[in-house]
Structure formats: structure tokens, C-alpha cells
TrEMBL record:
InterPro entries in the cross-refs: PepSY-ass_TM (IPR005625)
Protein name: Putative iron-regulated membrane protein
Top-rank taxon, per record: Bacteria
Keyword annotations: Membrane, Transmembrane, Transmembrane helix
Membrane-crossing segments per the record: 68-88
Keyword Transmembrane: yes
Length: 128
């Protein structure tokens, strides 16, 4: 409905050739003439791109079937991210444990060393 008694009716709908954007028509309520049209061919390339972003992002230009496809691929991407994080964390924990084990083995004194002199007190190449 128009905002006041002198305003035009605005009718809009999705384009057949490009369903991401709306086309609009303004109709004079007193003589039923079309006063203004806003077709896709009248839009600049910037208006077409910015107007197409929301329908592509939300998937609301085809219907429920496209939203279900978007949902499926969203779940698939989420599962890929979590599996990648699990693989990375297991590998990192395993490698970190191996490095810590090697450090612990290197820090243990040999049986040939004098037990009264701590291993850290000896210089490299020096034995007790």
C-alpha cells in the first residue's frame, strides 16, 4: 500500500532471467499507468554485484532445495575442519611426546659415571 493518498503503488518481483535481484514497477493508482520501471538492465554492475551477495549468501533465491544443499555442504565443511584439527593435534601431541622422551633420555646419567657427581656438573667430553 502507498504511504499516502498521492503515492504510487510499487510492485516488485524476482526477474525471470536473473533470479537474484528484484525488478520493480511504480503504478499510478488514479489512471493505472506505469510511471516508473526499475529493471535489471537499468542497474549498474556495482548494484548487480552488491544486490546479488545476500541471496547467494543465504541461498534464498531458489527455495528450500537450495537451502538443503547449502546445509549439506556446510555440515561437510565443518566435518572437514574438525577432522583436520584432530589429525593435526594427534600428530603434534605425538611429536611433542617423542621430543620430550628424547630429552629425558639425554639427561639421564650413564651407568659409568660416578653417582656422586651430578651429570649437569660435568663438562662435555669429561667423565667422572
Amino acid at each position: 500500500m502507498p504511504g499516502n493518498a498521492y503515492a504510487h503503488y510499487r510492485i516488485g518481483g524476482r526477474s525471470v532471467s536473473y533470479p537474484l535481484l528484484f525488478e520493480r514497477v511504480s503504478v499510478n493508482p488514479y489512471n493505472a499507468k506505469i510511471e516508473q520501471t526499475r529493471r535489471i538492465s537499468d542497474l549498474s554492475w556495482l548494484e548487480i554485484i552488491t544486490g546479488s551477495m545476500r541471496p547467494l549468501h543465504t541461498g534464498d533465491f531458489v527455495g528450500l532445495s537450495l537451502k538443503l544443499v547449502y546445509f549439506f555442504f556446510g555440515i561437510l565443511l565443518t566435518m572437514m575442519v574438525f577432522s583436520g584439527m584432530m589429525i593435526w593435534s594427534k600428530r603434534t601431541f605425538r611429536d611433542t611426546a617423542a621430543v620430550l622422551r628424547e630429552r629425558k633420555i639425554k639427561q639421564q646419567p650413564n651407568e659409568q659415571m660416578n653417582p656422586q657427581i651430578p651429570a649437569y656438573a660435568l663438562n662435555k667430553g669429561e667423565s667422572a
